[in-house]
Write the structure tokens for this entry.
Amino acid sequence: MMVFPLVLGPGNVPAVTDPDQAAEDLPLAVFTALAHAKDPLLPAKLDALAAAVVNAGGEAGKRWAEFTEIGLGDPRARTLWKHLMATYTPRFPGSGTLIEETLIEGETRGRAEDILRIPDLRGAEVAEAERDRITDCGDLATLGTWFDRAVTATSAQELFADE
């Protein structure tokens, strides 16, 4: 068996700086940006890519935006990418990317654990249904309200008062 490794990099991957060209072949434009991540002309490549990603829209656009963010590696390049995405899409962050959803899920899980820890420390019992309601809640604002109430509540039912 003979193996011929294919090595791709800035020397043999074409630069894509035109938004229309990037939109024609989004995977190539993403790969170009990643391959040229250390190029001084990276901002022009990312600008073209950002326009193409936003125009693609939907789940495909979100996934390419995430893939680009993860693949850039360099913190300065990532910061530039986030800035461009915020410029093109005012909802970014907040666009529901996989990374963002995972972070929010972790934050809500942690907040729910904190809420349940307070009655546990006091020796108060929390019914399984109430425990499930807290752990299943994905709204940080609601969990914040329940946490505030948990500090002074004498029963788990007091957490859900006014609801």
About this structure: The two ends are 69 Å apart (CA to CA). Residues 85 and 145 are 32 Å apart (CA to CA). Helices lie at 19-24, 26-35, 42-56, 58-72, 75-88, 98-122, 128-136, 140-152. The longest helix spans residues 98-122.
